[in-house]
Amino acid sequence: MNDTPVKHETTNAFHGQAIASFSVAMAATAIGIFRLDANAWVRGFLAIAVLYLVTSAFTLAKVVRDRQEAGRIVSRVDQARVERLLAEHDPFEKL
User: Whole-prediction pTM value?
Assistant: First the structure.
């Protein structure tokens, strides 16, 4: 059976870059919204819309990841079944 573990980890540099990129994007958006030449209701609506978009993006990313992991698990189970059948099969056995 193939015992090669599936590596899911990212490097610390990539993790830091992702956090920094997210922070800069959120800060730039917040500054842009609050410096916008519009009344408070418009700025508030845009701020809530951005927060909703961010939370929806996190949820979507989690759902996609969960589906990929579930598919990977099913694939590994199927592979283990096939390997077990092949290991138990005796081509010289009389029928």
Answer: 0.60
